[in-house]
Each structure stands twice: as structure tokens, then as C-alpha cells.
Specification:
The chain is mainly alpha-helical. Helices cover 56% and strands 0% of the residues. It has helices spanning 2-6, 14-32, 54-64, 71-83, 88-101, 106-116, 122-133, 148-155, 159-164, 179-182, 196-211. FAD binds at residues 16, 119-121.
């Protein structure tokens, strides 16, 4: 409360106040549900057919190491591994990509962030992952699938990608968000692990299968 009221003496603090409120909310969730990082908040999602097996493990590794072929995703994951931090917007993009495009269980991502983030918080991490996955008691819709290329074009002029994906340092601003599509992908940089449309359709099909 002291921190909250001290903000009255400062400038624009609305975003910070919202983050404090969200932290208190996530603390409340995990106090009531201590195993929230290990189970779906919505039991219906227990039937979602997540991918598993050798190919899925290889895709998980590509995501963890920033080798998905999606520059904004790879930049975020490399920054996370190197510094232990990344901006909240990039956290959402990378989390959504793992869950929706790769159809890999959100718990794999939750564990990876927990191991890598220097600001890792049990409640925030678990609730945020379930929010993106659509599996939580308070969450986004599973069918809402972020388009990483659109997000990249909207939030990065190219400098962030060049900083963390040096293989693309000589790619133009116009092509850096999708060098595959632009036909200028350097040999050292991987092709897309999956197309956006293919990943989206697979995720929606999985959601339909879950509902029976």
C-alpha cells in the first residue's frame, strides 16, 4: 500500500499500477491453487491433443534456442537466454508461438521461462502462460492466435532483431521481419519451422478435436 500511495506524487503511473494489481491477482490465484503451474485451470483443456514425440522435442529445442525462422521469436528467445529478460510484448509473442503455432504444451514454456528469467515469479509466470494458452481461470481465448510477423512489423523497426539475430544484420528493414518470404534469407539462418497459416489451422483443428 505504501508503494501504491507513493505513486500519487509521480507522473503517469497507470501502467505500473496495473502491473501491481496483476501481480496481486496472480499471487491470489496460486495461493488458492498452489499447483497452478502443473495443471490446466480449465479442465476441458486436459483433452487438448498437444504434440509430443521426437519432432515436437526438436521444435521445442528450436524455440528455446531461437532457431524457429521467425526473427521476432528468435530475437526474444536469444535475449532471454543471454540476459534472463525480455519485454512483456515479446514474452507474449514467443509464448503464443510455442503454444499455438507449434502446439506444444504451455507447461514446457512455463518451465523454460521459470529457469531463464531473472525476474521469474511463480504466480506471474504460471498465470501468464495459462492466460496466453487460454487454459486458465482468467485467460485469453485459445482461438486467438497472434501473428508473429504482424507483431514484429508493428513493434520493431528492425533494430531489436538485428541486435539479437546477427545473421540478419544486413537484411533490409522491409525484409527483416520475414526474410524467407522476401527471398533473402541468409544460409546461416534457418527457414521457418512452420508457416503461419499451417500453424494456425493446426491449432484450431486441435481445439475442435478437444471439443469433440
Amino acid at each position: 500500500r505504501a508503494v501504491w500511495h507513493s505513486l500519487d506524487r509521480r507522473g503517469d503511473t497507470e501502467t505500473f499500477r496495473k502491473e501491481l494489481a496483476w501481480r496481486d491477482f496472480t499471487d491470489g490465484v496460486v495461493m488458492a491453487l498452489p499447483d497452478y503451474a502443473d495443471r490446466n485451470g480449465r479442465e476441458a483443456f486436459d483433452a487438448l491433443p498437444w504434440r509430443s514425440g521426437k519432432e515436437a522435442k526438436a521444435d521445442l529445442k528450436a524455440w528455446q534456442t531461437g532457431r524457429t525462422g521467425y526473427p521476432i521469436v528468435d530475437a526474444g528467445m536469444r535475449q532471454l537466454w543471454t540476459t534472463g529478460w525480455m519485454h512483456n510484448r515479446v514474452r507474449m509473442i514467443t509464448a503464443s508461438f510455442l503454444i499455438k503455432h507449434l502446439l506444444i504444451d504451455w507447461r514446457e514454456g512455463e518451465r523454460w521461462f521459470w529457469d531463464c528469467l531473472i525476474d521469474a515469479d511463480y504466480g506471474n509466470n504460471a498465470v501468464n502462460w495459462q492466460w496466453v494458452a487460454g487454459t486458465g481461470i482468467d485467460s485469453n481465448m485459445f482461438g486467438r492466435i497472434m501473428a508473429p510477423l504482424s507483431q514484429s512489423e508493428k513493434f520493431d523497426a528492425g533494430d531489436y532483431i538485428r541486435q539479437w539475430v546477427p545473421e540478419l544484420k544486413n537484411v533490409s528493414d522491409a525484409a527483416i521481419h520475414d526474410p524467407d518470404e522476401a527471398g533473402c534469407r541468409p544460409k546461416a539462418y534457418p527457414a521457418k519451422i512452420i508457416g503461419h497459416r499451417e500453424g494456425r489451422e493446426r491449432a484450431l483443428a486441435a481445439a475442435k478435436a478437444m471439443r469433440g
